[in-house]
Write a structure and sequence with these properties.
With 204 residues, the protein is mostly helical. The chain is built from seven helices and no strands.
C-alpha cells in the first residue's frame, strides 16, 4: 500500500483541481440555471426579466472565462471538461423551455427551439459514443459562433417585453438570432453526425 502521506497529498491535489478557479466558474454557471428559471416564473414583471437577464449574462461571460482561465493557468481537468458543455446545455435548454412556456417563443419559432434542443441531445449521445472509441471532436469556429448566437438570442428573448421599453424590436432581434443559431446548430450537428457515422461504419 502507498504511504499515508502520499495518499493524503494525492487526495489534496484532487480537491484542489475540483475547486480551482476555472471549475468554480463552471459551478457558478450550473447554479445560474435554477436562478434564471426561478426569475422567469414571473415573466410579466419587468424587474424579474432584468434580473434573469443579469444572471444569464454573467453566466454567459463565465462560459468564455472558464476556458481562458483553464488554459492560461494550466487548470484543465477531466471534471471541467465534463461539466463545461453540460452547464452550457442546461442553461440554454432551461431558458428555451421557460421562454416557450411564457410564449416569448411561439408559432414557427418553436421549430428553432426544437432544432436546438434536439441537436444538443444528438451531440451529447455522439460525444459519449466517440469518447468510448477514444475519438475526440475539436470545437470548430462555426460551433463557437453558434454558441455566441444562441447566448445572445436567448439574452434578447429573456429581456422580452422589458427590453421593448428600452429597445423596440428586442423580441424580433432575439427571434432572428434564434433562427440564425438554429441554422448554425444544424450545420455543426451534421459535422458531429458525419464523424459518428464514419466511426460506426468502421466499428461495424
Amino acid at each position: 500500500m502507498l504511504p499515508a502521506c502520499i495518499m493524503s497529498t494525492a487526495s489534496s491535489m484532487r480537491r484542489s483541481k475540483a475547486f480551482n478557479l476555472a471549475n468554480m466558474l463552471t459551478y457558478g454557471r450550473l447554479v445560474a440555471v435554477p436562478a434564471v428559471v426561478g426569475l422567469l416564473f414571473w415573466p410579466e414583471d419587468h424587474w424579474s426579466r432584468w434580473a434573469a437577464l443579469a444572471v444569464f449574462a454573467i453566466a454567459g461571460i463565465t462560459d468564455y472565462l472558464d476556458g481562458y482561465v483553464a488554459r492560461a493557468y494550466a487548470q484543465q481537468s477531466a471534471l471541467g471538461r465534463m461539466l463545461d458543455p453540460i452547464a452550457d446545455k442546461l442553461l440554454v435548454a432551461a431558458c428555451l423551455l421557460m421562454l416557450v412556456a411564457d410564449k416569448t417563443i411561439q408559432s414557427w419559432s418553436l421549430w428553432a427551439a426544437i432544432v436546438i434542443l434536439c441537436r444538443e441531445i444528438l451531440v451529447s449521445g455522439l460525444r459519449e459514443f466517440l469518447a468510448e472509441l477514444k475519438v475526440g471532436v475539436p470545437v470548430s469556429r462555426v460551433a463557437k459562433w453558434k454558441t455566441t448566437a444562441q447566448l445572445v438570442a436567448v439574452g434578447f428573448l429573456i429581456a422580452g417585453p422589458a427590453g421593448e421599453t428600452v429597445l423596440p424590436g428586442t423580441v424580433l432581434i432575439g427571434t432572428i438570432l434564434l433562427w440564425v443559431s438554429a441554422i448554425l446548430t444544424i450545420y455543426t450537428g451534421w459535422d458531429y453526425l458525419k464523424t459518428g457515422i464514419h466511426h460506426m461504419i468502421d466499428e461495424g
